[in-house]
Design goal:
The structure is a homotetramer of 216-residue chains.
Chain A (H helix, E strand, L loop, with lengths): L4 H16 L6 H8 L3 H7 L3 H26 L3 H28 L6 H28 L8 H13 L1 H4 L8 H16 L2 H9 L17
Helix pairs in contact in A: 1-2, 1-5, 4-5, 4-6, 5-6, 5-9, 6-7
Chain A binds a DNA duplex (21 and 21 nucleotides) through helix 3.
Chain lengths: 216, 216, 216, 216
DNA sequence: TATGAATGAGAGTTCATTCAT
DNA sequence: CATGAATGAACTCTCATTCAT
């Protein structure tokens, strides 16, 4: 099935924005690469700004949906956390360009759009923090850790991947995710949580990951 | 002592860029707020692009310098790592606006500048990775972890702070750093390394951090 | 009887043009309000320009027709002039939006259309001037007045009404017309003409018009 | 003394707007004819819209000033009215292109500007109406005339001149003004007022105006 | 050195018009 | 006959940069 003009504009612009930044890409450039015209662009989007919003919204909505599914489909804090972390594999394989735009160009969203997006970002953060808190109550996660900082530490570790992960590089997102899960679980679980993590096979026992060269 | 025109331009622009993005701030705006003129601007900077480079360079050079001092002034992997992590406290308190610009506007550096900056970013990453590798060789850090991914995980966790840390917010960078060090050490040390970390008092024993509300 | 698409477009556009000016109204707006489509528009009119011409032509043709009838159906200069002035009552009640467009948007007619319209405007002016001249010859109107300037003075007084007359305002066109006829006749008739005007009851004897607030 | 860029833009644009309408003239056209650049234009005017406002304001402010001077410098209603009418001679000789723009392009002023202009238009109208009312009270003008309609009739007669008066045509504004004053005075004065008008030499005794061809 | 009026290439956006369905 | 997605020329406006003073 042929892709619609609107879809072609969206996909083209994401890749261009990722590479050159929102202001480094003109509408002219987008429509040329997407095989349409300025008229076609403005027939589908009210403004370049609205296109930027669309990119933001598609991504954050997808991430929230996956995380919420992970939450409800798992019972224990360790398994919920593992599942949420795992859901990021798909996100990065499919949405890496979205993420770059999401985290680097949001300054250029207009205020109205910015608010909508921020509310969704908050929903995601709060869900993760809730899992941490539930784990502390159940005795799976160390109680001396402040859940808000831990939440942001985890989000930072994961999100930062967009800065260095290369889809055609030597590391797969599965490998990276395995290491992240291991690091996060080691850093927050109690002995009780450690046993479950082991049973769920969420920890690295032997190194198997190729060493490569990365740029921050 | 009165600040020079060049310094005033630099400081003004960093704050404006942080808030509105590089393309959301005009030279006109900068010179008005900095109390100079277009002529004054171009007398001190060859272009707006060069100013952006200057901001990048001031920041990354400072970070590298501090990290390298931390490296040579400490002997063991655990203490080296602790010191490097600790050096970020100062960075965030002083350079938060620089970091935002550094990580969100580098797409707009011209290619020549971009290369210079990337080389410095690499130097920093490689230094941290070297500490991890030395710790694995000495038996302080778990050998099954791939050092490159661990390096990026740590960098991500730390850097992400610029997205949510607020200088006049409820958390101090000291508190945040204490938690980060605890998390990182728990996630990578062996039993041997754990003992040293305890002696160096790098681990949280009892929670003392206020719980607050954050936005991602 | 249902109105045709063409009629709906014409009526809708006149009101929109009157309010927002020819360039302040898009074809999109017209077709939406008229309940048709772009295709429907261009099926009925070759261009937006032609629609503007149509509006001009409908109006000026109507005015000429009425004036010429007034001319031939009356015998004396005083009665001819009164009848022509009177025919404007109907014009304003029915055609006020046409008049606004006619006098404010004709700059945007293309040259070919502009010429056709100008010829019809001339016919109207010449008819009125002819009445003035006949009145001077018959001794009803003062001979020292230059008929061309008098003609334009009358036309100006009448036409200007479109700038301030409000259909749902406090004054009716009948009241206004009565005053205009009084003013015009007083200003141009001789004693002989005055007698006839009195007999035809074209002069105000007692004021009966409500005083109201108007904007130029 | 050389004219400033701002003045050259103003004068050029008035003539272009008069001929082709506000929307028939591009900023590009204005700056080319005025011998400057787009940058020069926007350095002096915030927008094309603001330029349109400037044209409106220069004109209406001038007209009000002259009318108010005429009012205070004359004592009787007949002389006040004559002086105000007379002040239009200068207006038309100097400001004819302004008037055209003023009366045909005001639909394109933005709402804020439109309000400011409308208030000034009102001031002018009210001043004229006041003279009429004072004349009725003093017994110089016929009491059966509604002053508001008379005011608008006079304004219409005068203003309409911009539609047909040609600076290099066969009629001078002095000649036209003489006729207008005669018509207006004949149409509104009582016998008492008539005597004063005669003494002030405001009435045509013998025709001296050349007959010419005009277009409405 | 310092100023700010002037530049002009290039940006985002509009909209009358076309035409395959 | 009717539709509305698509076109692209032309528009208003921006802003980094220059340079006479």
């Amino acid at each position: 099935m042929k892709k619609s003009v609107k879809e072609r504009i969206l996909e083209t612009s994401i890749h261009l924005f990722q590479e050159h930044g929102y202001h480094g890409v003109t509408v002219e450039k987008i429509v040329t690469e997407a095989g349409t015209s300025k008229g076609g662009f403005y027939h589908n989007y009210k403004s370049k700004d609205e296109l930027l919003y669309e990119i933001h919204d598609v991504f954050i909505s997808y991430v929230i949906e996956k995380a919420e599914i992970s939450y409800v489909e798992n019972k224990t804090p360790v398994s919920k956390l593992s599942a949420i972390l795992h859901s990021f594999i798909k996100v990065f394989d499919m949405y890496k360009p979205y993420i770059t735009v999401f985290y680097e160009e949001s300054a250029y969203l207009n205020d109205e759009f910015k608010q909508i997006i921020n509310e969704k970002r908050d929903r995601y953060r709060k869900l993760l923090q809730k899992v941490i808190e539930e784990g502390q109550e159940s005795g799976d996660f160390r109680k001396e850790l402040p859940p808000n900082i831990v939440t942001m530490a985890i989000i930072g570790m994961i999100n930062w991947t967009y800065k260095w992960f290369k889809q055609d590089g030597p590391l797969t997102m599965e490998e990276i995710t395995a290491v992240f899960k291991d690091l996060i679980l080691h850093s927050i679980v109690t002995e009780k949580g450690f046993e479950e993590a082991k049973h769920l096979n969420q920890l690295l026992s032997f190194a198997g990951v190729i060493q490569t060269d990365l740029s921050v």
